[in-house]
Each structure stands twice: as structure tokens, then as C-alpha cells.
Design goal:
The protein has 396 residues and is α/β, with parallel strands linked by helices. The chain has two domains: 251 residues, Aldolase class I (TIM Barrel); 73 residues, Orthogonal Bundle (Arc Repressor Mutant, subunit A). It contains 15 helices and 16 strands. The chain binds iron/sulfur cluster (SF4).
Length: 396
Amino acid sequence: MPGHIEHLYVHIPFCPAKCDYCAFVTHIGSLKLVEPYLAALCREAELRHRQRSGGPFKTLYFGGGTPSMLAPEQLWSLIQHVEAVMGLSSSCEITVECHPATVSLPKLLGCRNAGVNRLSFGAESLDDGELAALGRTHRSADVARAVDQARAAGFTDIALDLMYGIPQQTLESWRNTLERVIQMEVTHLSLYPLSIEPKTVFAKRKWRFGLDVPEDESVVAMYELACGVLRDAGYEHYEVANWAKPGHRCLHNLAYWRNAEFHGLGTGAHAYLHPYRTENDPHTGSYIKRVLAGMDPVTVSEQVDVHTRAEETMMLGLRLLRDGPDLGAVERDLGRHPLEQLKDEIGPLIDAGLISLTADRLVLRETAVPVANEVWERLLLSRLPARGSTFATPVM
Ligand code: SF4
């Protein structure tokens, strides 16, 4: 029996420029596709609602790309349409990802008036040399200005993304970035180690000339430094790569880690409506054409059996350093308690200080995050005879 869908992701694929490390679906350059794209998003919302009604949504997340390239009026129209077609709960968390160089006080006031109540800035670093090395078009002063403007516009939920292990970065420059971010008193931080993805500028540069990035040991030291500095500053490390001030966890992303179902709209958007995980057409032009012609833009669809769902619930939940996976949900899918299934594996991992088990709660320890892939590998439920496809999830 399908459950109630409470989460909606909307992909906005437009960016001011392509960052050198970026492997996301983005459309650079002319904005002439924006209006037809917004029309297509509205049509897709109607299509999805006919296929399987969701809402009222508890979370709505505009990700990208750079959603802050939209005018507040465009965001407002989109939110209004989603609310009219699919429904939004009165306390819906509405997040917009922002590029620091694309916001202004009037724009953020407009976003607030459109119903947005959470902003997530792609700061990446507060060192101008590192930002240039990443191919970012903003500088550290833009981040400070954007956060001030967000606060002046009335936002109290302000998140920053940062990267570490990036070219030119040292432990000292990383500490400096963290300390400056703490002074900004943002409520949420996502810290990602640089990952060099295929077909990016970084991948090509690495292949041709090599790329001068910190050694693995230095990257681990940066992670450990962040854990200590952020703990002292009152942030809760609640997910492998995410820290929040009390009461400021990202509810939308928590839904992913809890393996909840969600709708997804837009170019390349993923959705999970059990038993299907789907992915939309990754090309903005053809996505628009398909949707406006009344066609379904899904180009990839994978069926998830209950055994695979159990494994996904386990692996995604192990990213949650305070809560761990919902073992009851895993048991319902497996027909057997996962701790019983994994009893031979858990003891050695506890002894090695990599996981802890308390009152039916199994969690990865903060110090084990750098070797999380190995821990997750040991805890795969795939030792049971019947098994669906493997689910891979990135570390840190
Ligand atoms: S702003 Fe974000 S989505 Fe756009 S190119 Fe840069 S990293 Fe990619």
C-alpha cells in the first residue's frame, strides 16, 4: 500500500557559470529557457499529481543548479502552483539553494514574501584563492554580504555548504574558513570533501597535468578539525556531512536519509515513489519539449523490491550519526530483525570503536566517518539469499 508523500524536490538547472568540479545537471548561459522551463515544471506537477497524489508537502526543496537565479516573482508563481495542485502544509520547510553572488536584499525579501523560509548558500570556502581555484564566480566577501542580507530579510534558517580537500587548501586556511563561518552564526553547515567526478574540468585537468590537492591524510585531518571546532561552537553533527544548531536540521534531506518517498520535478530530477526510483530527462531542452507535449519526462526507472528497500533504509540510515537507521522498518521489509541478521558483524565493529549500539539504536561513530564505506560494506544485508540490486551511497 503506497504511503503518503510528504516531500518535493524541484530542480532549477540554470547557473551563472560552470564550476570546475561540478558534475550536476546545469544549463549555463542564456536565460531564454527559464520561462518555458517554469511552465514545464507546472505541467509536470500536474502530471505527477494525477499519477500519484502527494502533499500537503512538509518539505519543498529548490535545488540546482542555482535556484537563486530565479526572480522572486518566478519563485512565488511556482510555489503558488505547487500549493494549488499538490498542497503545502502550513509549516512546510521551503528551502532555496543560493549562489552568494546572485542575491541582494530586495531579492531575498521577495523570496521571504514568496514563502521561502530556509536558504542554503553554496559558500564552498571563505578563502578567495581557494574559490578561484574551484572556478567559483563569487568571493568570500559575497558570502558575508549574502548572509547579512538573508538575516536582514528575516531568515533565521541559514545554511552554508563548504568544501575541503580542495586545491591550495591547508589545515590553517580550513580552520580560518570554519572560524569565520562560526562568527556568521549560520544555523546549518554541510561539509563535503572534494570529489573529482568524471567529465568535469577538474577530471580533465587531473588527467592532463595532475591536480595539486591535499593528500588523503590531510583531508581526514580537515574532517577531524571540523568535528572538534564545530562541536565547540555548539553544532550537532547529525549526519555524516551535516552539522546543525539545535532545532535546525534540514528536514528535507532527513527524509532522504530515512528513505522516505518523495516527488521530484525538473531536468534530471530523481523521485522515489515505492516501488519505483525514477530519473527525469537530464537535458533541459528535451525535458521542456517532452513535458509541454504532454509526455512523461522520466527516462530511467528502476523497481525496488522490499529486500533492496531494507538495504537502502539500513545504508542511508547509517549516515545519521545520532539516530541511525529505522531498524523496525528494516525488520518489516526483511521479516527478520537486522541486528539478528548482522550479529556476527556488529560485535567486531563495536570492539573496533566504529559503531555503537544502544537500546536498539545502531549508529556510526563520528570518528569512523573517514572509513564509513568499509563499515557499511560490512553491514550490508545482502548476505540474505534473496536480494535486489546494490545501492551505493557516497561517503562524507
Ligand atoms: S553553482 Fe553549483 S550547480 Fe552551478 S556549476 Fe557551480 S557547483 Fe554546479
